[in-house]
Each structure stands twice: as structure tokens, then as C-alpha cells.
């Protein structure tokens, strides 16, 4: 099933024309993860846990009207209140269903790179974000693509080293 990805950033518009995501940024992919440095090799029999290391979130997209503003935010170190990545697919009756959402709070554009080639379809852009807090929401779906139960949510506050 095809998935559409969007990025909504406070104060920075994109060129999406999709219903419910107009003026957001169309993205091609994103990459994100976490590492727990604790192990059963440290901390005795119970297994020690360390502070989780949360990776920056990297997105891939085509250059659009958000590109100069993302570059400016990176160069200036501007803090952005919130950025949200939406993952959407056809749902029950083919109505779009947002089934996965990543919400970033107190965001910094930590890296931006453009990549173009003569004869290519478009100029591609890689943008990386660092944040103080990340929240994940996942909506399970039934066989018809509709909602199946409530949203499952988890967060990690990097400053407080707190998961919930």
C-alpha cells in the first residue's frame, strides 16, 4: 500500500497540495533511531541501563520553497517550536489515514545538503533535525484499512532523560 509522507514545521511552508496537508513539505523518506548503551555486561546481574542516545532525524525531499528557509534556520541556529512528520496511507473507503506520526519539540536544523545532477529529474535535499523531545503516535488498522483501537503513544524527553 502506498504511503505519503509530510513534514509540518512551525513558520516554514512547503508546496504540498494534498488534502489535509496543504502547504506542508512533501518528503520522500525519513530515518530515525535510538541506541541504549546499557547492557548485561555492566551493572551486575540485573543489567545496567544507560542514557539512551537519540539520533537526529534525517529527511529526504525535493528542493522546494521551504529550502531557503531551512538553510537559514540551520545557518542561524534558530530554535523551531515544533515539527511533525505524518505518515498517511489509504484507509477505510480509501479515505487517507494518518497511521504514524513523529512530533519533535524545540527543534534545530542541524544539517542540510542539496544534491543535483545535470539531466536529473530534480534537485534532492537532505535535512537533519535535532530536538529536545520526540513523541511517536501509531494508529493500528483493521483489514479494511480503518482504525483498529486507539492510538499507541510513546515519548522521550532528551533533556530530562525521561521516557513515557
UniProtKB/TrEMBL annotation:
Q: Which Gene3D superfamilies match?
A: Hcp1-like
User: Where does the sequence pass through the membrane?
Assistant: none
Q: Name one Pfam family in it.
A: T6SS_HCP
| The protein, known as | Type VI secretion system secreted protein Hcp
Source species, please? Sphingomonas pseudosanguinis
